[in-house]
Every structure is written in C-alpha cells, then in structure tokens.
Write a structure and sequence with these properties.
Length: 483
C-alpha cells in the first residue's frame, strides 16, 4: 500500500505536531472544517512528427494547499514553498477568507493507509529511459505508415507523470497516495485525390511503461501497435466517407469511447454542487424516473489501473462504486465533503482537484452504463435507417437544461439493419435526461475507453474514464448536410 507520509515529513522537514498546529490555525475556532493537501509531481512529455522528435519536456512541481470551510463559504490559499512559514501564512489566509461558521475542534492526527491499492507500479513511467520512449514512437510511425500508402503523416506523443500526495484533515485523517499516469496518442493523416482526412487513437492509465509493449489479455497484438493501426484505419475510413444524413432518426452508439456522451450529457448533471444549488436538470429528482428501465449508470473509482481511478480522492476519502441511476431511477449524486455535509448525504469519494493550487469539487472518476442483454447485431438489425456512431470528437453541454451537441469523428449509415457507408460531419443534438428515456436496447458488450479521457470543469482538468455498451436511442436529432 502507498506510504507517503515519510516522503513529505523528511523531504520538507515537517512533523505531525507541525501539521496539527497548522490545522488548528486554519480552524481558528470559527471554521467548520480544514484540510491540507501536499503534492510533489514529476511530469514528462515527448512528441514525434515525420519520424523526428519535435518536443521533449520535463517538469517538477511541488506545493501545498490549505482549505478552510465555514458553512457554504470556502477559503483557499496555496504555496509552492512547502515550509512551516508558508504553511502558517496559507492557514491564516484561508481562515480569513472563510471567516465565520460554528467552529469545531481538530482531532488528533492518525495515519491511515488507503483501503485499496489500485495501481501498484514498480517503476514510475517517468523513470523509463527517454531512449525507450523515442524508439516506441518511431516504431509507431513505421507501423502506421505501413497500414496503407495513403497515410502521409504520422504524429505520436507520450506523456507521463508520477505524483505523490498527502492529505491532512481536521477530522484527524492523515492519508497519502502515489499516482502514476501515462498516455500514448497517435494521429494519422491520409491523402487521396487532393483530399485529406484525420484519424486518431490512443490509450493509457495508471500503469508502467511496459504495459504498452504487451498485448491485452486474450489478444496477440501489443497495445502500441493496436493504437497505430487504429489511428491509420480511421483516417483511411474517413477518406471514403459521404456527407452525414440530417434529421431525426434512430441512433446506435457503439461501445467504449461513445460513453463520453454519457459523461458530458448526464454525468456532470449528477455532480452534487450543481444539484445542491438547483442548477442541474437532475436537481430535486432523487427517486424519480430519469431514464429507460434498461439504463443503470455507475461511477466507479476503484477499477484497477484505470485512468480515472484513485485509491483516495483529493480530500482523503476512499473511492467507491456509486450507483447514480438504477434501472432508470435516479438514486444518487457524486459528492465531495462540502456538498455532502450541506446536503446531509454520505460521501462518495468524488472530491477532486487539478493540483495543490486548486480547491476540490465533486467530479467523476470512471463513469459508465452497465451492460444489458441484447447482442449488438440484434441492435443494429432492429434499425431500418439511422446512424451508427463509433467515436466522438468535441462536444458541449448546458448543465441547467441538459442540452448537448456532439460531433462524431467516426460514424456510419445504418441501412436495413446493416452498417452502410461511413459518414462525415455528423453531430448529435439532444437533451441528456431526455435521451436516456429514449434508450430501447442495451447491448451485452460493455467496454471502457482505452484511457484518454480528460474532464474540464471550472477551469480545472482531471483524468477520467468513460464506458458504454452498444445502445439504441429510438429518436435523436442528427445534424448533417445530406438530405
């Protein structure tokens, strides 16, 4: 299990008495809750274009954030200098910002290891020699170009980080974690008859560099080779794509990455802060039907090695599996400490922050819909004419209304129950709570994304995972140009 207290206590000359004194100072007799968040992070990135290394970067950062909470008000101060003097200054500043509240006494600190160890990586991905990473990117370039002579450009990149955190709370909790993270991306450009199209794929997670060199269980091709071939395939497919149809029609979403639509259109609306303030389309709807009885949606931060997984969230709460929608009924929200206390609901382990310079808020981890019973072939076979969306690019959603717009990066016509021609320029337009009520079939092929998701909220970005089985939406507006 991760043991991070010695790292911070020895590296920055801290002690438990110093931490207790800082917490006492942040509480100040007028604050309801206070915590400290220490972070030390090493991050690295490298990119290859046209077989040549274009950029290499490495960064080391460290800091501490101090939070004081009084009823609904939060005071937050941080410093990149982890010293007793800066801890005292930050504690006073946070307390002054939040000033008020009923006041509580801090409990004596006690170290508590995480309940689970989801990413026991022996070697940090940032410690793998740079030469190994360059060779991997060069091999990806060769494989992608070998897929088809129409692949004219290949861009590959590798990013990794190794983060050590320590969280100290006024409730007496002292808990830490060691978080590896890496991501490999491949983008290919295909050209034919004066036309150019793009294909992209990638993956990663909280694992060692060597995981890219091995094949997933039950498969023979290493992950890095799968990524290269898939990016090239998408680019070639898009060369033959026709204009997307327009109108209201049945839409089938493929498994895996299309779960990003669920994440954006539904997941954000289930975060506690929006619901406490009454600004979500799901506010006040606990216990009511918000989706088809076929739909069960969960957020699970305990999946081993996944990009969105955490041993503890950024407030020191153990992560868990939270059922948000069960058989179409809204059963819960994603909670951090502040909102759980104000809403009088249990913690779910979803308090997350981008770094020590940011205050935590409720965020998703790995969010997906559970598998149903329908074979994917039966789902496609039930559609006379519609759209089959396999992958998505960008999208936008309005939390209050639930309205969303998503662009499909790979999609096909469905004609007489069969997958037809690939299409380009398709956008899906709808309303998150409404679209789930239109789900009439759920596949038995649940898949999680390959590990590329990053979620933005209020200026903060955190790694997340998404997932979906094949599903059929009976009626959805598709924006396109073909009639």
């Amino acid at each position: 299990m991760p043991e991070t207290h010695p790292f911070f206590l020895t590296r920055y000359d801290l002690s438990f008495p110093t931490l207790e004194k800082t917490i006492d100072l942040a509480l100040g007799g007028k604050i309801d809750y206070a915590d400290l968040y220490f972070e030390h992070q090493v991050s690295e990135s490298i990119s290859l274009e046209e077989g040549i290394v274009k950029r290499v970067g490495k960064n080391i950062s460290q800091g501490v954030g101090v939070r004081a909470v009084a009823q609904e008000k939060t005071g937050y101060a941080y410093s990149d200098d982890i010293s007793t003097e800066q801890l005292v200054a930050a504690a006073r500043c946070a307390r002054h910002i939040a000033s008020g509240g009923g006041g509580v006494a801090a409990r004596r600190l006690a170290a508590a290891p995480p309940r689970h160890d989801l990413y026991p990586v022996a070697e940090a991905p940032t410690d793998t020699p740079l030469s190994d990473k360059v060779r991997l990117l060069q091999r990806i370039d060769e494989i992608a170009r070998g897929v088809d002579p129409r692949i004219t450009q290949v861009m590959a990149s590798f990013a990794s980080e190794y983060k050590v955190v320590l969280i100290v709370t006024s409730e007496g909790v002292v808990v830490g974690d060691i978080l590896p993270l890496m991501r490999l991306n491949v983008t290919c450009i295909a050209e034919a008859k004066g036309e150019r199209q793009v294909g992209s794929f990638g993956g990663g997670g909280r694992d060692a560099f060597s995981s890219f060199l091995s094949a997933p269980e039950g498969e023979k091709v290493p992950r890095f080779e799968q990524y290269a071939r898939e990016a090239a395939r998408q680019a070639i497919v898009n060369l033959s794509a026709v204009e997307a149809p327009a109108g209201t029609m049945p839409v089938v979403l493929g498994p895996g990455w299309p779960g990003i639509l669920l994440h954006e259109a539904v997941g954000h609306g289930l975060e506690a802060d929006f619901n406490r303030k009454g600004t979500s389309a799901f506010s006040g709807r606990l216990g009511t039907r918000v989706a088809s009885p076929l739909c069960t949606v969960v957020d699970d931060g305990t999946l081993p090695g996944r990009r969105g997984s955490l041993n503890v969230d950024d407030e020191g709460t153990p992560t868990q599996r939270t059922v948000l929608i069960e058989n179409g009924i809204l059963t819960g929200y994603l909670q951090d400490r502040l909102n759980a206390r104000l809403m009088k609901m249990p913690l779910t382990g979803n308090g997350r922050r981008e770094s020590y310079a940011h205050s935590p808020m409720p965020r998703m981890t790995n969010t997906f819909m559970l598998a149903g019973e329908s074979p994917p072939a039966d789902i496609l076979g039930s559609v006379r004419y519609g759209l089959y969306a396999v992958a998505f690019g960008g999208g936008q959603v309005d939390i209050t209304s639930g309205k969303f717009v998503f662009s499909a990066s790979e999609a096909y016509r469905i004609e007489n129950g069969k997958i037809g021609a690939p299409v380009r320029g398709a956008t899906l337009i709808g309303n998150g709570p409404d679209v789930l009520t239109r789900v009439s079939m759920v596949g038995n092929d649940l898949a999680l994304d390959s590990g590329v998701g990053t979620c933005g909220k209020d200026g903060q970005s955190v790694p997340v995972g998404v997932g979906l089985p094949t599903i059929k939406i009976d009626s959805l507006t598709v924006g396109g140009t073909a009639q």
